[in-house]
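Subject: for your reference before the review

Hello V.,

The reviewers asked for a structural picture of the protein, and I figured it would be easier to keep everything in one thread rather than splitting it across files. Below is the amino acid sequence we used in the manuscript, unchanged from the supplementary table.
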Amino acid sequence: MPASVLTRMMPSSRTLAGLAAWCVLAGATTVAIAVIASQGAFYRGYVSEAGVVGQPYWIVYRIGILGLAAGLVLLAGAMRSTLRSAASLLLVSGLLAGASGSISCSEGCPLPPFQTPTIRDLFHGGTSVAGVALCALAVLLVAVFGPAGGLRRASRVATAPIVAAGLVNAYTLAFVGRGEMTGVVERALLVLMVAWCLAAAYALSRSGRDVSPAGSVI
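And here is what came back from the structure prediction:
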């Protein structure tokens, strides 16, 4: 089948953006319900601990993470003709989020250098950190190289707080370990990422453009 026919058969960027928004919103809400119901509003640990097998809402948590992963993949599709490099990062981020949600950490989600993790812990932690980092890098790329419009404006507004929270989160993981500060910063970073995904999906659904010269910038 010719590539032009396949392209015409693919959903439009606006359609994918709308689906991405619903998946991200539903996924984030589901994760929040699972986390708050099992951990409370304030917790001295990682969000991922709500997904450990045996926790009361671990299935709900994993469903929410898979919803977020689907939202990232759909957002990547919506962004494919706007900025291909950012779309590629979002696609990989979504796949990593799906991998993270499919394999949970052990009790307490131990991570080095303060604890002794298992292979599952390292896999879960590595995919989670890499997924968030790639999504944050996509935000930065859109802020710098994206075409003028709502998507770039939303990304420029989000860049500073996301980068700041990401750096603090990296510091707490490396030098503080599991605790109240790490838990608060992790939650703040995830809220910022979800907010950007929703803003980006809204901007893409409003733009009405399926082809943009900026798509070939990077």
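For the response letter, the relevant points are probably these. The radius of gyration is 18 Å. Residues 1-7, 209-218 have pLDDT under 50 and may be disordered.

Happy to draft the paragraph if you're swamped.

O.
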